[in-house]
Amino acid sequence: MQLTPNNVSDTQDVPVAKVGSSGHTRPMSDPAFNFDSMSVSERIQLVEDLWDSIAASEAEVPLTAAQRDEIDRRLASLERDPHAGRPWPEVRARVEERLRDCM
């Protein structure tokens, strides 16, 4: 079920999030805080801060077997041909050029 503002009341298919260590859950569509009271820039900052806190706890977010396999595959590919890729400045310049063309 694709969630839209029109069908969020059907909580059977609404994603849930764990709340604390008790294991209790509540629908994510019913947050404890009214985010609409924040400006867009404040909400963006909140997301950035939340992401930074997750990244700082990376040991608590283990890789899946598929992610480990993909990293191993990419490392093996790099070791076979270390010059196959493009340097970051070249890639960045190409992306920025494409973005400018879209504007």
Q: Output the helix-strand order.
A: EEHHH
Termini gap: 34 Å
Q: Kindly estimate the percentage of residues that lie in beta strands according to DSSP.
A: 5-15%
Detail the poorly predicted runs: 1-16
| Adjacency order of strands in the biggest sheet | 1-2
Count of helical regions: 3
Q: Mean pLDDT across all residues, rounded?
A: 79
Radius of gyration: 21 Å
Report the strand count: 2
Class per helix and strand makeup? mainly alpha
Describe the main β-sheet briefly. Answer: 2 strands, antiparallel
Helix amount: 40-55%
Categorize the overall geometry: flat
Structure description:
This protein has 103 residues and is mainly α. Helices cover 47% and strands 8% of the residues. The protein has helices at residues 40-56, 65-80, 88-102; strands spanning 16-19, 24-27. The chain has a two-stranded antiparallel ribbon with strand order 1-2. Strand 1 and strand 2 form a beta hairpin. The longest helix has 17 residues, at 40-56. The chain is flat and about 50 Å long. The chain starts with 15 loop residues before the first strand and ends with a helix.
